[in-house]
Amino acid sequence: MKDALAIHRWLLAHQVHHEIVRLPRALTCAGELPEIMHADAAHCLEVTVFEVDTRVGLDPVAVLSSVATPPRPAMVGTLLGARKVSPAPAFIVNSATRYAAGLVCPLLLPDDLALLIDERLHRELPGDTLVHTPTGERRTALSLRARDLLTLAGGKRLDLAARGRSSLSHGHRASHSLPR
């Protein structure tokens, strides 16, 4: 499993200013970040992992969004043209991300895991805004600039606020075949 130290070392190697924050109490999921860190929910980010049923089979897909606007499975399914989308069980989240379920950091995700990023993060978070994410550990969180996180996370941008099909914008992690 990945942890705060692995994230810290990776960010240092990339010369990214960040802070690993020691939390006053344990997190059980990213949704608790606003309360524990006394931060705006729009500035607290979470990774939700879904099982997406495509014509080929079931694939895990990670979606990065703010805690204030979590992704809806139906919207993700519509935008991907999937038969069915449902939240992935904890064991799938753990094996697909190499983080503890509910505490997934959007950094250091495996290359074979499709990462979709809610377009609203790019539109609504000024680059210097401080954002917070889990680190895979219950007692720590990661704080860094939105611009740095969104650049390093890569992934495909997806407009989860849209009413119909949306085009995807590709980041540098676009190696996975989803969406089909």
Helix-strand layout with pairing:
Layout: H1 4-13, E1 18-22, H2 33-37, E2 45-53, E3 58-66, H3 73-80, E4 84-87, H4 90-97, E5 114-118, H5 119-124, E6 130-134, E7 140-145, H6 146-153, E8 156-158, E9 169-170
Parallel strand pairs: 3-5, 5-8
Antiparallel strand pairs: 1-7, 2-3, 2-4, 6-7, 8-9
**Fourth CATH level, the homologous superfamily:** YbaK/aminoacyl-tRNA synthetase-associated domain
Question: Can you tell me the CATH architecture?
Answer: Alpha-Beta Complex
The number of distinct structural domains comes to 1
What is the residue-mean pLDDT, rounded to a whole number? 91
Fraction of residues in helix: 25-40%
Number of strands: 9
Order of helices and strands: HEHEEHEHEHEEHEE
Radius of gyration: 15 Å
Give the biggest sheet: 6 strands, mixed
Can you tell me the CATH class? Answer: Alpha Beta
Here the CATH topology equals YbaK protein
Q: What amount of the residues lies in strands?
A: 25-35%
Summing up helix and strand content along with how strands pair, one would put the structural category as: alpha+beta
Q: What overall geometry do the principal axes of the alpha carbons give?
A: globular
Termini gap: 29 Å
The number of helical segments is 6
Strand adjacency order, main sheet? 4-2-3-5-8-9
Could you list the spans in which at least 5 consecutive residues all have pLDDT below 50? 170-177
GO molecular function: aminoacyl-tRNA deacylase activity
InterPro entries: YbaK/aa-tRNA-synt-asso_dom_sf, YbaK/aa-tRNA-synth-assoc-dom
Protein name: YbaK/aminoacyl-tRNA synthetase-associated domain-containing protein
Domain YbaK/aminoacyl-tRNA synthetase-associated: 36-151
